[in-house]
Write a structure and sequence with these properties.
By secondary structure, the chain is mostly helical. The protein has 12 helices and no strands. This is Probable membrane transporter protein.
Length: 320
């Protein structure tokens, strides 16, 4: 029961991050399942089964808040489903001894990408409203879907920054469209795992626990996407993913590092992670303070100032 409660809380937290950042539900949840000793293919299968429900709820919430571009959903989601099915059948064929460090490497790479991307870079908006072409979205979806199934996550970490970097779609619609299209990826990956593993490859109770937490968080995250600073959140989540998967690699047969080496590496990662989050917070505050104020806010401030100037004069006139 304790494990199920922890998984539900993890699903809630992961969906809050995913729904407001456009990534990290799969990577975070799969990393957690690997940390408690789950077979890599079974971990990814369990997470993708839970994601069928969470992505459906998240997509509906994002659609309700106007965060979805349906043209992008179709152009990237269908190739993503093809890549996810291929990745699921590929991972199912690997032995556990090979799959665990391979998955840890994929997750580590994705974690480093998330950490560096959101720590060092802002969100470009110079090409807003220019169309996103199918020749860009289709290969992106194919690669992201394959990585998502083999790494237990990767749809958001690959798709969201790539589309954000184009600057052609505002951030909230990038996040909403990626979350919505992930439903197609989750369904295709789940079918692939059922083909490769059968139903015994999935821990159904764990999938339900992850789903329950994600369903609670989905509508909250769709609302928070307008308010949570993605730069800080990206740095924080990226650090968690990097730390957990470094731990898996150091303890694997590939490296078999001693305790002294492990703790030295952990200390360095903690220090770099803290520095990254601190830098992201500093840069977020700097850019927020120098960003031009919206015209509506400026107009409201001007009206308030004018009203403040008029009231004393009116008061003086009344007193005469």
């Amino acid at each position: 029961m304790r494990t199920l409660i922890l998984l539900a809380l993890a699903g809630l937290g992961a969906q809050l991050v995913d729904g407001s950042l456009g990534m990290a539900y799969g990577v975070t949840s799969t990393t957690l399942l690997l940390a408690v000793g789950t077979n890599p293919a079974a971990a990814s299968a369990t997470v993708h089964l839970a994601e069928i429900g969470t992505t459906l709820a998240s997509g509906a919430a994002h659609w309700r808040f106007g965060n979805v571009d349906w043209r992008v959903v179709l152009k990237i989601g269908i190739p993503g489903a093809v890549g996810a099915f291929a990745g699921a059948t590929f991972l199912s064929a690997l032995s556990t001894e090979v799959a665990e460090p391979v998955m840890a490497l994929v997750l580590l790479g994705l974690g480093l990408y998330v950490l560096t991307r959101f720590t060092l870079s802002g969100l470009p908006t110079g090409n807003l409203d220019k169309p996103l072409r199918k020749r860009f979205l289709s290969p992106l979806g194919l690669v992201a879907g394959f990585l998502d199934a083999t790494g237990g996550g990767g749809w958001g970490p690959v798709g969201t920054p790539a589309i954000l970097a184009s600057g052609r779609l505002e951030p909230r619609k990038v996040i909403g469209s990626i979350d919505t299209s992930e439903f197609l990826v989750a369904v295709a990956a789940s079918v692939g795992f059922f083909v490769g593993l059968g139903s015994e490859g999935v821990n159904w109770l764990w999938a339900v626990a992850l789903l329950a937490g994600g369903l609670i968080a989905a509508p909250i995250a769709a609302w928070l996407v307008r308010h949570v600073p993605p730069r800080i959140l990206g740095s924080a989540v990226g650090g968690i993913i990097v730390l957990t998967n470094i731990r898996t690699l150091l303890r694997s047969d590939w490296l078999a590092a001693g305790d002294a080496v492990q703790w030295t590496v952990y200390g360095l990662i903690y220090a770099l992670w803290a520095a990254a989050v601190g830098y992201s917070f500093k840069e977020h505050r700097r850019t927020a303070s120098t960003a031009p104020r919206p015209a509506a806010d400026v107009a409201d401030a001007a009206e308030a100032a004018e009203a403040a100037d008029v009231r004393p004069a009116e008061a003086g006139t009344t007193g005469r």
